[in-house]
Amino acid sequence: MKKYLNIFTLLILLSLLSACKKDLDINNNPNSATGSNIQPALILPNAITVTAANTLTYNNYASILIGYHLPGRGVSGFNDIYSYNFTSSSNTALWDNVFTNLKDYQYIISKSQNDPQLALFNAIAHIGKVFNYQRLVDAYGDVPYTEGLSGAENVSPKFDPAATVYQSLVKELDEAIAKIKTNAPNAGTTVTELNGGSDVLFGGNLTKWIQFANNIKLRLLVRADGSSIGSFVTAAYTTFSTEGFLLENAIVNPGYNASSKQNPFWNSYHSSVTGEATSIATYYIPSKYIYTFYNGPLLTDPKRGSLIYRNFPATPTGQLGDERNNPNAIPTYSAWYTGTGTGLTATNTIGVLKGRAFGMPVFLASDIYFLLAEAALNGHVLSGDAKSNFDKGILASYQYLETNANNAIENGQNPSTDLKAYQLANQNNYLVNYDLASSKEQRLEAIITQKYIASNTINGFESWSDFRRTTYPKIQANGSPTTTFVSISSASPRPDKLPVRDVYPQTEYNLNPNTPVINNAFSNPIFWDLN
After folding, report:
1. Domain range for 66
2. Sign of the C-alpha dihedral, residues 107, 264, 219, 41?
3. C-alpha 353: how far from its chain's center?
4. How many domains does the chain have?
């Protein structure tokens, strides 16, 4: 417990220092580097913790775009979400928070670059940097990568082409893995520091860091497959490290607790440390569209439906853009399953939220299985065939939801039995039973649809990226609330009435003349979006 308190004390101090600097510097550039003499061992836990918190920021924003949840009646400030008419003032945290996080990783990289004793910190920081840069590319396209973290040396960094950045990120991961392998045998005190609290993701397990890097690399390659860098992708598929992939949930936990620093997911979807219900708990609702994957007519899945939603199978109301004037849109407390009690009386449970002290997921086991399935579908068999990984991905989804706040399968739960019941209940549907898919396109639809279900409320940004890339899960143009998640107030001129990207923040336009001019969210799709 003492090491966790030390970590949180450090996080508070860093936050105060950052806040003071921001208040004093009216021309603060989010691309500037951190200036300090703090050791990497003290910066790393903050960097990883913030990465996890940013995962929630991306999830909450994209979950509305992809139909996981809707802002209920009475919530103001969502006009750009209702219309998708994003401007340079919309969703700015997606850019600003990630670049702030990247400065932490870059600080570690710079501080450890020429110190063999800090080589492992250097490698881990590079992995964290890649994880964050992919988010930026997937949201914005071109980003300042080669010059973006130069700090005061270059306050107007150039923007590198998104496809080029993707290639650089793959190479950066390969180099980080090689550095870990080279330095692990003589790590000594470095591993002790990682085990002692610096590594709040894997506790100094270097094999897991290599596998995690392989996971991120696979996500990059799957997303870019078939794009303008197709030949690079094909070659990179042959260069995975032999340690394989991380086939478990990657969970960040710096010592979350109920009294002072609870899990950001709980803090966002449930209640504060004082027991006050959050705006999401009070006003957010599921879409009718997402319920069709649990309560028909598309699929039947009462187990996962009841693990995610508080009032399942009660039918939700509204569609994005419609619920503003819907008097039935506001839930009595929370639309998500939170066990018994409310506020401070709420108990730990299973499902999406689990408890105040549970960790933050940054990469789900289901996600890597579905990535492996899609890679195999495209001819890159890395660890099992497409069908086996497809089934394992669904199983991993049940396992995660049936895991309790102690990170163990809850007594009385049986994910394997639940998977079989799911397959039987949908025995004639290729979206559940992979062998029934009669074409490559149907198999891709099955993989992405199940990945969409497994990511529900947990990782909406991945689902939005997958939808832009594949157009799955299927929606109907101008459909009803049960056949589409598209807002009825959409201003998009596209046939699907959806956005394809985010718009750079106004601060970038003010500070950096190299920022690409993006007039709206309906054009200039990301390079891997071929639709």
Report:
1. 2-25+33-260+356-511
2. positive
3. 15
4. 1
